[in-house]
Amino acid sequence: MKIFSDERLLGLGVISGTVSRHTGSGREAQNVKKFFDTLDIDSANILGLRQVHGAHIVPIISGEDLKNYRKTAMHEGDAWLLGRAGCGCMILTADCAPLYVWNDRGICVGLAHCGWRGVAAGLPRKIAEDIKIRAGKNVRLCAYIGPHINACCFEVREDAAGQFGQRALVKKGGKIFVDLAAEITAQLLSAGADAKDIRRECACNCTMCNKEDFFSYRRDKTRDTMISFIYKPA
Ligand SMILES: [Zn+2]
Fold first, then answer.
1. How many Å lie between the centroid of ligand 1 and the Cα of residue 95?
2. Burial environment of residue 132 by CB neighbours within 10 A (0 to 12, 13 to 18, 19 or more)
3. DSSP secondary structure code for residue 185 in this structure
4. What's the pLDDT at 22?
5. d(CA 120, CA 210)
6. Given this model, what pLDDT does residue 107 score?
7. Measured in angstroms, how far is the CA atom of residue 178 from the centroid of ligand 1?
8. N or C end of the chain: which has fewer CB within 10 A?
9. pLDDT of residue 74
């Protein structure tokens, strides 16, 4: 098992990362439990979402937020904003980009499921701006774009390509490819992040190219997904 993560988050006391396929599909509750057991984290404290490829962000900042979340059977949304300790949040991806965004003091840590629809709907920008609202306008935004399908493989039709600006499109041999990380980066910059604070997983870790480490919906037409999570110890 490998965990793809950014050590800057660990420096703030946040355990996080995107877990390789060796742990099994994140859709199976037993795999999720087994994985968090290896980290000595009670999986009952890891919250999940019903992802719908939108731009809705679920905040878990106050005790009230957590209570509201627990009251509802299944939350729809594609991103988290975590402020509470003793609590963690999870998303599932298999080609979409897991995006981690936080302020340099770690007051708010965001995790977003960024497929092309969510990105086209402005989710990366929205989560960065949400952090600024909660942590202060002058915070320094930091981000890590985890393993996802890269421009080498992410071919799209004209209608999907039309959702993006030229900055995210790569044209090769009459085909159009989307560079999700380029678009996510552009949105974070427009929200006030500095380029040097945005890191992306190596393009060599494209989920479609790297079969050993990742599930890929495009490659295998599978429903199996990798776990991405953030957790603030109590
Ligand atoms: Zn690839």
1. 10
2. middle
3. H
4. 97
5. 25
6. 87
7. 11
8. C
9. 76
Question: Measured in angstroms, how far is the CA atom of residue 76 from the centroid of ligand 1?
Answer: 29
> How many Å lie between the centroid of ligand 1 and the Cα of residue 7?
25
28 Cα to the center of ligand 1, angstroms: 26
pLDDT at position 213 is 98
Instruction: Note the pLDDT of residue 75.
Output: 87
Residue-wise over 13-51: b if at least 16 C-beta within 10 A, else e? ebbbbbbbbebbbbeeeebbeebbeeeebebebbbbbeb
Task: Tell me the torsion sign for CA atoms 31, 205, 8, 56.
Answer: negative
- Fold category of 3-232 in CATH: CNF1/YfiH-like putative cysteine hydrolases (3.60.140)
Q: Where are the domains positioned within the chain?
A: 3-232
Instruction: Output the pLDDT for position 102.
Output: 97
Q: Which residues pair with 67 in a beta bridge?
A: none
According to the model, what pLDDT value does residue 72 have?
Answer: 84
Distance 3 CA to ligand 1 centre (A): 19
Q: What spacing in Å lies between the alpha carbon of 68 and ligand 1's midpoint? A: 40
pLDDT at residue 31, rounded to an integer = 97
Kindly give the pairing relationship between strand 87-93 and strand 79-82.
unpaired
Q: Which two tokens stand for residue 169?
A: 């499109």
What's the pLDDT score for residue 138? Answer: 86
Residues 6+ apart with CB under 8 A from 126: 55, 57, 79
The pLDDT, as a whole number, for residue 199 is: 98
Positions in the chain whose pLDDT score sits under 70: none
Q: What is the predicted pLDDT for the residue at 2?
A: 97
